[in-house]
Specification:
The structure is a single chain. With 92 residues, the protein is mostly helical. It is 83% helix and 0% strand. Helix 3 packs across helix 5 and helix 4 crosses helix 5.
Length: 92
């Protein structure tokens, strides 16, 4: 059930951000595609993910983990939009 909800949320976000694709310049699209979490944030995500799967998160940590996952999903959708801009510009 949770994965179905997550998939639906991703689809809604994808549809919501469709207009962004037309507004991206190639330079902005490239910057979005290259966006990565810094080492500290990545380590925090990995720690929370591990402890989440072990059932060891406090309610505050769970809220933080969910926020990080939501942020990562947003970035993933933005990167997909940016890739489509770059691919469209490279197509003959």
């Amino acid at each position: 059930m949770a994965s179905t909800t997550a998939a639906r949320n991703y689809e809604v976000l994808d549809q919501f951000l469709n207009p962004l694709r037309d507004a991206l310049t190639p330079e902005a699209a490239k910057a979005i595609v290259e966006l990565r979490a810094d080492a500290t944030t990545q380590a925090r995500i990995e720690d929370l993910a591990y402890r989440h799967h072990e059932g060891q998160l406090t309610s505050e940590e769970l809220a933080e983990y969910e926020a990080l996952v939501n942020g990562a999903n947003l970035i993933a959708v933005l990167q997909a939009k940016a890739r489509s801009v770059l691919n469209r510009r490279q197509a003959p």
